[in-house]
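Q: How do we represent a protein-ligand complex in a form that can be generated token by token?
A: Start from the inputs.
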Amino acid sequence: MSTRAQQYDAQVLRCERLSAHLVRLTLGGAGLAGFASTGIPDEWVGLVVPGQFQSRYYTVRSWDGTELVVDVVVHETGLVTEWAQLDVVGQTVTITEAKGSFAIPADAQWLILVGDLTALPAMARIADGVQVRTYVFAEVPDELPDYLPAGPQVTWLAPPGAGRSRLAEVVEGIDWPEGEGYFWMAGESAQMRAIRKHLMRVRRLPSMAYDVMGYWRANAQRQPRAVDPGPIYRAGKAAGKSDEQIWAEYDEARDHS
Ligand SMILES: Cc1cc2nc3c(=O)[nH]c(=O)nc-3n(C[C@H](O)[C@H](O)[C@H](O)COP(=O)(O)OP(=O)(O)OC[C@H]3O[C@@H](n4cnc5c(N)ncnc54)[C@H](O)[C@@H]3O)c2cc1C
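Then emit the structure tokens for the protein with flavin-adenine dinucleotide bound:
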């Protein structure tokens, strides 16, 4: 069986700057006709921009059957970061089929979402669809008061500096709600590794109770290769591994890419 992901060509229909560090791209065109959402609210696609072979991963902020919206964080330097700030309307990009991993247990009484600006699109989409009491901790450099839907209790946090995060420390200080719930978190990989350890060793959460993903890796230069979380996730699931083992393997693969 082939593990090659489906690919779709799409045109950039619109490009809108939502804030100093966030650019919204609306993609469309006939090439997206076969695209299907997984329905999982943190679903992501690989994005290949013109003239490049490497992909970067972006959350599907929305898909209405015709137009697909992704919100791209523009940071100091990067392949997509630099491209997204050009005049990109009308350009053709390639996206891969969607994959998702959010899996809140049916009996969860609450949901905690933690992330930096790269995780904000997923947190917004998750918060749009859940019925349980939701707490959001968002570490973002920009004022984006209307980005998240009304309903969740939101704590906005300032990052300690450009390209830096202290989410691990934030999570260690969280006052956890009573009862059983679900914890979802995404952001800088080293922070995520620290959090997995905290959830396993200190809070002793079962692996079904949380999902923690490294979305990007702080280092000095352009990343040599993006690692698609999809095949690792599918292979891990097929092998009966826990989400926590799978995401640890994903971090490992990225560290050695
Ligand atoms: C499942 C998944 C979903 C994601 N969803 C989104 C999303 O919706 N929106 C989004 O913007 N990102 C998202 N990301 C993160 C995004 O894929 C990475 O940030 C990616 O590296 C950005 O690519 P780039 O070409 O701009 O920079 P790269 O060329 O990959 O990196 C260049 C340099 O920038 C640094 N860098 C990379 N990302 C950041 C950052 N966010 N802040 C500061 N420095 C950084 C790197 O360490 C490197 O030194 C997601 C990642 C995953 C795995």
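Residues 110-219 form a domain with the Rossmann fold fold (CATH 3.40.50.80). The pocket of flavin-adenine dinucleotide is lined by residues 44, 56-59, 70-73, 75, 77-81, 118, 121, 163, 213, 215-219, 221-223, 229 (CB under 6 Å).
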